[in-house]
């Protein structure tokens, strides 16, 4: 995998479809009242999160009632649900698959600080100093490149993105997911006027907008497009399927990458605070980061782990993730970006 250099910025991430989520509490009928209990709202994919949660149950004897939301806007949906439940919280811990929504919850007074015994494993730019949230197990925004069609080098990718037609370049609609987060990072770096100009330019040049990162990955993997903006977990799905693809990090003009950690936070006035803190400690451990790194989604460890248990590809991604830009600024403008994009795409 080629060593990255400074290159173009692009794409976006997060979402704003304020989905109508039921405020029905998670079912507790299967929980043994004789044991400690814990309620977790989880936006990470159930396929990958279940094994982590079950390992926690086995190690601690604490039974976890977990609420997943499988919609495309699941991160935002659970964020809105937690805001709706703020006066009578049912959830103890929010495991978000992104960070911007978690920072929003801090501003909405939904969270309470907790500095985990494992928090100091995580670099300062991936956690809140006061302990309101802590990042772990990240994804990166990347360019996925079809290597049958072109070379996966910084210069070649930049040449395509900087000039001429983008008809063989794919990107997800920025109304949700990590593409919305990406746009929020660009807004923080550039300001709204330049972001609007860039959006107009890529549309005029014919960029192919699709419904999500997975579809972007598929278009590049099948050779329909040469380059796509996606995340590392989607790129690995194509690599595991023996598709002719490689990836390069999206780098900002500052040289920083767009690293999007999972995040974990303690809910204010939650019903089971002691069990919640144990779960947060567990998620932020080296063991949990390694488990998620070695899952098919290849989440990138942010703290120190046994490098002998990581593939060469993940060791490279760790280096790219270490250059991740702080997300606090992006979180502060995320709502403004979402409002603009909603008007752009829906006319509302």
Task: Describe the overall structure.
The protein is about 40% helix and about 15% strand. It is an alpha/beta fold. It has a domain at about 35-140 and about 260-305: Periplasmic binding protein-like II (D-Maltodextrin-Binding Protein, domain 2). Helix 2 (about 75-85) runs parallel beside helix 3 (about 100-105), helix 3 (about 100-105) crosses helix 12 (about 330-345) and helix 5 packs across helix 12 (about 330-345). The longest helix is centred in the last third of the chain and has 19 residues, at about 330-345.
CATH class of the domain at 37-138 and 261-306: Alpha Beta
Number of strands: 10
Global Rg:
20 Å
- Helix count, DSSP H or I runs of 4 or more residues: 12
Name of the CATH homologous superfamily of the domain at 37-138 and 261-306? Periplasmic binding protein-like II
Distance between the termini: 43 Å
Approximate shape: globular
Features:
alpha/beta, single chain, 348 residues, globular
How do you describe this structure in short?
The chain has 348 residues and is an alpha/beta fold. Helices cover 39% and strands 16% of the residues. Strand 1 (37-42), helix 1 and strand 2 form a beta-alpha-beta unit.
Helices and strands in order, then pairings?
Blueprint: E1 37-42, H1 46-60, E2 63-68, H2 74-84, E3 93-96, H3 100-107, E4 111-112, E5 134-146, H4 154-162, E6 169-172, H5 177-190, H6 192-204, E7 208-210, H7 213-221, E8 227-231, H8 232-240, E9 245-249, E10 259-267, H9 273-283, H10 286-293, H11 312-321, H12 328-346
Parallel strand pairs: 1-2, 1-3, 6-7, 6-8
Antiparallel strand pairs: 3-10, 4-10, 5-8, 5-9, 5-10
